Each structure stands twice: as structure tokens, then as C-alpha cells.
Amino acid sequence: MMATIARTALSATDRCDRCGARAYLRVILPGGGELLFCAHHGRAHEAALRARGSKILDETHALAVPHIAADDER
Predict the structure, then answer these.
(1) Three-state DSSP class for residue 28
(2) Phi/psi at 60 (5° precision)
(3) Closest by Cα among 24, 26, 22, 23 to 7
(4) Tell me, what's the pLDDT at 1?
(5) Interval 25-48 mean pLDDT
(6) The pLDDT of residue 46 is above 90
(7) What is the spatial distance between Cα 33 and Cα 27, in angstroms, rounded to a whole number?
(8) CA–CA gap between residue 13 and residue 67 (Å, rounded)
(9) What angle do CA 26, 31, 35 make, to 5 degrees?
(10) Which residues of 36-71 are buried (b: 16+ CB within 10 A; e: fewer)?
(11) Collapsed DSSP state (helix, strand, coil) of residue 56
(12) Which of 13, 23, 32, 61 has the greatest count of CB atoms below 10 A from its CB?
């Protein structure tokens, strides 16, 4: 029987394994290991990871989107 590991949501302390920026994607490798990526590196490696059967948990919805004032608000 294979054990299931509960994975919590990524937080500000989780860092990209490639560059050290805040991680927004958790990649579960077919062998059971995991990698964390920032949005930039997650997009850069997504196709290759999916082709190898990795599962990607995407939390980029948590990225802040700056408010751009409309012309009448300036």
C-alpha cells in the first residue's frame, strides 16, 4: 500500500528550486519527489515536466495584480 502525503498550500517561505524566488508551482515527479518553481520557471519547464508524467499544482492565482487607475481616476 502506498502512503499519501498531504500537501499544504504554498506560502511565502516556499522558494523556487531554480532561482530562489517565491514558489507558486509544486511539481510532483512520477517517482514521488517534488520540485517548487516560481511562475517564470514553472512556465519555462512545464511542457517537459508534463511530458515526463509530472503532476503540476499551480497556485499562480495568488499572484498580486496591480491596480491600474482608469484615466478618470488620475
Answers:
(1) strand
(2) -65, -10
(3) 26
(4) 47
(5) 96
(6) yes
(7) 8
(8) 25
(9) 25
(10) bbbbebbeebbeebeeeebeeeebeeeeeeeeeeee
(11) strand
(12) 23
